[in-house]
């Protein structure tokens, strides 16, 4: 399944339409259930890459240090998410029964992402850090479901922006770039679903972190207020066109802004 077919499958199953409005919590569960098959298939390209020797071929093509650094950053983030969700699933009484299938599906994706990145990096793959999801006692995510969802939102939103920020460093390697964009697409759907479980829109508005998110998470959202794309200020352009179809804030909602590697590393580094 290539990236275009993956996106088409999500569109056909109603996900794009569901994200255009702020669904209720019940609707959110329903929509996620509908994409179970499509979401599960999202892991297939990563597995097929290394079962068909494409990953070893891709690893042999590594030359720029930026490619290795980009994938090592991705692996750190995926290590973090994989362990976070697995720990939550093994924490008795933490996840409400209505949410179990959602969190389990996300966890399966993160496990597949780690496996792909480890294989693609081969000898360059770093060991998993020892994580402290309490950040020295500041959080209690495996005894408090609200705090679990807060950290899940921060992790997923960081991952989406970090993958976008590193895409340019993989552009010389088509297989790796395609795989990274596929992961980015899946992470974006994770982020949307987690945000909806928290009663928020499925996307970031301006640089607002969203209700209930602590000030410490603001670094995840700084820069999201940008409205300049391709050298054009979309907000100004729409206003000057005489057809400002949307409010000023909505222009920031249409794009996920890239996050640079030092910022992503600093955010992840808080947890190990």
**In which order are the strands of the major sheet placed?**
1-2
How many beta-strand runs? 2
CATH class: Mainly Alpha
Q: How many domains, in number, for the residues?
A: 1
Fill in the CATH topology. Ferritin
Count of separate DSSP helical elements = 13
Q: Which stretches are low in confidence, meaning pLDDT under 50 for 5 or more residues running?
A: 1-63
- Rounded to an integer in angstroms, the radius of gyration calculated over CA atoms is 18 Å
The rough form would be described as globular
Taking the sheet with the most strands, its summary is: 2 strands, antiparallel
User: Pairing-aware structural class of the strands and helices?
Assistant: mainly alpha
Share of β-strand residues: under 5%
Proper CATH architecture: Up-down Bundle
End-to-end distance: 35 Å
| Estimated helix fraction | 55-70%
Instruction: Give the SSE string.
Output: HHHHHHHHHHEEHHH
Q: Mean pLDDT, as a whole number?
A: 78
What can you tell me about this protein's structure?
The protein has 272 residues and is mostly helical. The chain has one domain: Up-down Bundle (Ferritin). It contains 13 helices and two strands, in the order ααααααααααββααα. The chain has a two-stranded antiparallel ribbon. Strand 1 and strand 2 form a beta hairpin. Helix 7 (65-89) runs parallel beside helix 13 and helix 8 (97-121) runs antiparallel to helix 10. The relative contact order is 0.13. The model is unreliable at 1-63 (pLDDT under 50).
């Amino acid at each position: 399944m290539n990236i275009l077919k993956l996106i088409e499958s999500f569109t056909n199953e109603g996900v794009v339409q569901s994200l255009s409005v702020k669904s209720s919590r019940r609707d959110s569960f329903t929509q996620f259930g509908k994409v179970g098959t499509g979401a599960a298939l999202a892991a297939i390209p990563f597995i097929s890459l290394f079962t068909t020797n494409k990953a070893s071929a891709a690893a042999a093509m590594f030359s720029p240090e930026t490619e290795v650094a980009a994938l090592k950053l991705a692996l750190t983030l995926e290590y973090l998410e994989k362990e976070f969700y697995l720990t939550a699933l093994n924490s008795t009484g933490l996840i409400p029964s209505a949410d179990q299938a959602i969190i389990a599906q996300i966890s399966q994706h993160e496990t597949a992402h780690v496996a792909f990145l480890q294989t693609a990096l081969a000898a360059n793959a770093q060991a998993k850090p020892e994580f402290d999801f309490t950040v020295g006692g500041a959080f209690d995510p495996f005894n408090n479901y609200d705090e679990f969802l807060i950290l899940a939102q921060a992790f997923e939103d960081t991952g989406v922006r970090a993958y976008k920020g590193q895409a340019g460093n993989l552009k010389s390697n088509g297989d790796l770039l395609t795989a990274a964009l596929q992961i980015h697409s899946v992470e974006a759907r994770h982020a949307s679903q987690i945000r909806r479980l928290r009663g928020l829109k499925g996307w970031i508005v301006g640089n607002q972190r969203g209700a209930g998110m602590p000030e410490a998470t603001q670094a995840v959202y700084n820069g999201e207020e940008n409205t300049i794309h391709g050298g054009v200020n979309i907000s100004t352009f729409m206003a000057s066109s005489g057809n400002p179809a949307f409010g000023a804030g909505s222009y920031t909602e249409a794009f996920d802004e890239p996050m640079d590697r030092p910022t992503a590393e600093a955010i992840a580094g808080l947890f190990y």
